[in-house]
Amino acid sequence: MKNYSSNLFQTLLACAILFSGLFAAEGHAQTPEERPDYGSYYYQRKTLFEQLPNAKDEIILLGDSITDGNEWAELFGNDRLKNRGISGDKTDGVLYRLDEVTESHPDKVFIMIGVNDLARDHSPDYVLSNYEKIVDRIKKDSPDTEVYIQSLLPVNDDFSRFTSHYDKTPEIKTVNKGLKRLADEQEATYIDLFDDMTIAGDKLNPEYTEDGLHLNGSGYLVWKSEIEKYMD
After folding, report:
1. Backbone dihedral angles phi then psi of residue 204, each to the nearest 5 degrees
2. Which end of the chain, N or C, is less packed with Cβ atoms under 10 Å?
3. How far is CA 197 from CA 89, 128, 142, 155, 185, in A?
4. Each residue of 55-70: pLDDT tens digit?
């Protein structure tokens, strides 16, 4: 009886460990100490997004600070537009919070992510691999959603604040070529914003930025002019 009880206890303990690991992997039972260290602002935004009500036919703008920095619904005069940008976010961060994006089965998702990966010395192949996972997840979890893959934007090293980003132009162009190819393969729509925002030397037009990385109001108007044709 003693051996039987011991074996039963060990079996139950192993099952408990297994199931707790599965729940943690799915993000359902993780404590703040167990979750990825994406920073406090990331989790402030992520947890807010999870509490906001879903709406019919949402149009989601998904990305990092360049997406985060715009008032999309006001700019377009369309309450269907939902800002799902998080400053500092990377492709891994988007994958980690993608369930919130797809659970409403949005009408459209416009994605721009990856420049922060490059600034942290991830390779273009790393960015493109994660991008493929992002698109695959959206298509699997919300098959009727139209996916729009937007190019990464140029940067401008005439400024001095974001030095880790300014020397990534070759990598940005490599990623953009891969994104266009990925869009063709996934039957998504590729939107080239890079060429519309550059001056000579493939630099971000200084009329569209205050820091060489993020957009000002004029830059967002250029962005708007490129994607409004895809809005209902």
Report:
1. -60, 130
2. N
3. 22, 22, 32, 9, 26
4. 999 999 999 999 999 9
